[in-house]
Amino acid sequence: MAANTVTNAQPDGHNHEVGVALLHDPVQNKGTAYTREERREWGLEGLLPHAVETLDRQVERVLDHLARVKDDLDQYSYLMDLEARNETVFYKAIMSDPKRFIPILYDPTVADACEAFGNLYRRPRGMYITRHMKGRIAEVLRNWPEKDVRFVCVSTGGRILGLGDIGANGMGIPIGKLQLYTACAAVPPKGLLPVLLDIGTTNEHLRADPFYLGTREPPVPEHELDELTEEFIQAVNEVFPGICVHFEDWKGTDAIRMLDRYKDKVLCYNDDIQGTAAVALAGISAGLKQTGGKLQDQRILFLGAGSAGLGISKLIAAELQTLGLSQDEARKRIRLFDVNGLIESSRTDLTETQKLWAQDEAPSKNFVEVVDRFKPTVLIGVSTKAGAFTREVIETMSRHTARPIIFALSNPTHKAECTAEQAYTYSKGKALFAAGVQFDEFEYEGKTFRPGQANNFYIYPAIGLATYAARPRLLNDECFIVAAHATADQIGPSLQAKGMLFPSQDQIVETEITTATRIVEYMFESGLATVERPVEIRSWIESLLYNPTY
Ligand SMILES: NC(=O)C1=CN([C@@H]2O[C@H](COP(=O)(O)OP(=O)(O)OC[C@H]3O[C@@H](n4cnc5c(N)ncnc54)[C@H](O)[C@@H]3O)[C@@H](O)[C@H]2O)C=CC1
Ligand SMILES: CC(=O)C(=O)O
Ligand SMILES: [Mg+2]
């Protein structure tokens, strides 16, 4: 047995595992695709059934199996197991039909996977950095076997989708987000590291759950979180030089504070703030192409003024300034309404970032009243408040606006501010609608409406691919504005004619390569890129892509 599991030194200096160890290595394992010669060479004879199969046949088996699994969470579990057995088959299957698999690996099924994380747990994936490792984080990170890590997606679990604080159960999100770097933008999976920064959780129900896998403590106080994060940021940069830190699903105020602290110092971004902002800007731009309106003429109202709402507001205001408006004029076109009412200047509970958006106007705790008063042309839900876009809200908006643009971005499905059916019915078919999840097409008075999916997965994998290729010093807001325009520009006349606000998910890899190409061009033009500029950017990016093959 021992002789059957040792590693053999190869001419290229790398070790090649043999025997059972090889079959248990998901990156190298080819399973039934090993040829007879390979089976002899690598000590696999007798360890595999007789048949020698192609990769395509292996993928067919996966698809055939999944076609018979009814429950999405069961499909998710099967796919996670597949990835742990054979990464090549996993990505080949996912990338064969991204539209079908994005909702399984990611939003909305990943929400169920996170909620059941402790029950579903089978094997470790990614890294768990806890408060108890303070002072030793770099040492712990060195336990990760891959040395050339290019991205770390890190969450505290403090605000997972619209599910609130679910602590270490949130690990499903960094895992899923990084899987989409590969599935949607062909970023090689080798250098992707999911991390759960386990700072404790406010979730008493989970702390009492016997299957909970995180630290059973309330979260560390803010100053301790800041120290822990500072050490983490320094440690990942020391252990994995050139790494990009992707912040995901932190508690809103932590998310904003960390991005403000690190965006000009290290290569990092916050997907909920910047990625979401870009996808919203892309959707609004696409919507305006259909209505013939101009961004300068819009009145944009947000329900929710946390990391997503404030991030989108900032990027829209930046875009308006490039169109010639002053900062004040830009901000006047935007209103935010949070759990305590309209953000306006008499409020005493606002954060410094929220104060930037407070206008001198009458307070209100009544959302319909604010809709009636402000007459938004664009309504964006980032509140986690399911059903908040009531019939009254949408009817009031529709009275003032010929083609209301309505985005119900809160995730997962049961947190959306309204459904597609509600948006189209309440607006009498006038709304241009998108949600964080994909709603089905809807027939209204003989017309078929195609809701968009306004989800940051249209943006962050492209940012990832651009970053992977150009290795920028930093990522600035302009990278996200470029990404937004590149995404919107890919909705050509035929998609526009179908009322689509986002590109088709069938060709998501092509779409994100096109977006990444535009971002990389900007990175070279602005001096952010640190690698040598190639003659032809797109073909150079294409030469770097992951291709699931043996
Ligand atoms: N579609 C997408 O790509 C994305 C969607 N989101 C979703 O947006 C939602 C919010 O995310 P964050 O802004 O990061 O969270 P956050 O916790 O930072 O902010 C939530 C905001 O909603 C407000 N709020 C809560 N209950 C409310 C109520 N009943 N009425 C009005 N406002 C209320 C809060 O006061 C706060 O301002 C989440 O559900 C998340 O899943 C976030 C990022 C991307
Ligand atoms: C999509 C996403 O990033 C969120 O809902 O948090
Ligand atoms: Mg998120």
Automatic annotation (TrEMBL):
Cofactor: Mg(2+); Mn(2+)
Transmembrane segments: none
Origin: domain of life: Bacteria
GO molecular function: malate dehydrogenase (decarboxylating) (NADP+) activity; metal ion binding; NAD binding
Keyword Transmembrane in record: no
Amino acids binding a divalent metal cation: 248-249, 272
Residue ranges annotated for the Malic enzyme NAD-binding domain, each copy included: 273-524
Cofactor detail note: Divalent metal cations. Prefers magnesium or manganese.
Biological processes annotated in GO: malate metabolic process
PANTHER family linked to this entry: MALIC ENZYME-RELATED
Family the UniProt entry places it in: Belongs to the malic enzymes family.
Name the record gives this protein: Malate dehydrogenase (Oxaloacetate-decarboxylating)(NADP+)
